[in-house]
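Reopening this one. Same input as before:
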Amino acid sequence: MTILIVLLSIALLIVLISAFKINPFLAFLVVSITAGIMLGLPLTKIAGSVEKGIGDILGGLVIIITTGAMLGKLVAESGATQKIAKVMMEVFGEKYIQWAMMLTGFLVGIPLYYGVGFVLMIPLIFSVVYRFKLPALYVGLPMLTALSVTHGFLPPHPSPAALVIQFNANMGLTLLYGFAVAIPAIIIGGPLFSRTLKKIPATPLASFKAVEIPDDQLPSSFKSFFTALLPVLLLALAAVVPLLIPADSVLINVAAFMGNPSIVMLIVLMVATWLLGTSEGKSISQVMGLYTDALKDIVMILLIIAGSGALKQILIESGVSNQIAGHLQGVQLHPLFLGWLIAALIRFCVGSATVAGLTTAGIIIPLMQSSGTNPNLMVLAVGAGSLMFSHVNDSGFWLFKEYFTLSMKDTFKSWALMETIVGVMGLLGVLLLNAII
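Same output, byte for byte:
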C-alpha cells in the first residue's frame, strides 16, 4: 500500500504540472501535503515536515545556486565562456567536442559537489551551444553525465565517502574500482546516448546567452580558464592540505572553512568580479546589475527545488525507505545486486541519492558481512543504485529541466533515461569486476 501511495503521489504531481499547467512549486506543496495525509503522518506534523524539507534543501543549495548564477552571468557577459569555447574548439575540434565536455565534467566532478559543478559548467555548455550552433543536449549531457556519476560513485562525495566508512572499505581501492566502473558508464550515458537526442528542442536560459564579442576584446585565456577552474583548485587544495600537515595544526580548520562549497563560491565570485569585471573596464554598478539580472532567472528554479525538498521530507518521515528495505531484505539475490536494488527503489521513492545510499547501508551490512562480499564493490553497487530512476522528486531533475527549458516529457527522455543508463551500467561494471577480482 505504501508503494502505491508513493506512485499515486508522483502521478498526481506529473498530472498537475503537465496536464493542468499548475506552477511546479505549488504542485509540490499540494502533493506533499496530500502524500503526508495518505501515508498517515499526524496532521500536526505535516506542515512542519514541509517547512523542514524546504529549509534543509535550500540551506545547502541557495548560496551555491545564487552565486553560481551570478558567476555564470558574468562569465557569459565578459566573454570568458566565448574564449574558453574558442580554445576548446581549436584543441578538440567540433567533431570531438562531446568528449572534451565529458572529460571536463569528469575532472571537475571529482572534487566538486554536483550542484556546484552544475551551475559552474552550465555557462560553458551554453557558450559552446550558442557560438557553434550545436544541439544543447548533444553538447551538455556528456558533461552533466560525468558530474552525476562522480557524485554517485566516487569518494570524496558525501554518500560514497560515508559508505566507505560504514562498509569498512578501502578509500583508495574504492576510488580505483570506481574509475573502472564510472568511465564506461559515462561514455555510454553521455556522448553515445546524447547523440540520439539531437532533435529534442532545448533552449538554454537566456541569462547565459551573451552577445558575441569580437575576438580582440575577449578576456585572456588565463583569466577565462583560471576563473572557471578556481573552484576546483580551491576544493582540491582544501582536500590535500589535511594530508600534508599535522592533525592538530590550525590550518586544518582553515582548510575545512575554505573548502566549504558556499565559501568557495563566494571567494570565486569576488575574484571573478575583479578579474572579469573591474579589471576589464566594467564598473561595480554594471557588475552588480548583471548579478541582479542573473537572480531573476533562477528564482523559480530555487522554488521548484524547495518543493522537491518538501516532498522528499514527507516521504522520509513517513518511513517509506525503511518499509521498502524491510520487504527486500529477505529476498534471495546476489548481495551486490540486492544492495543496488534497494538503493534504486529508495531513490525512486524519496528522490535523494544520498538518502538512498545511506539508508541502504544499514540494511545491507549484515548480509554483506555474512556473505563475504567485497566492501569496495558494495560501495559502488549501492552508489550506482542511488542514481537510478531520477524523476520529479529529485532536485537534479528540475535543475536540468529548468536550465534547458525542457518539457516534462523531454526531461524524462533525456535526463531520467541517462540516469537510469548509468545506474544499470554501474551495476554491470560492478558485477564484472566481482567476477574478475
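So the earlier flakiness isn't reproducible anymore. For the record, Residues 43-78 form the longest helix (36 residues).
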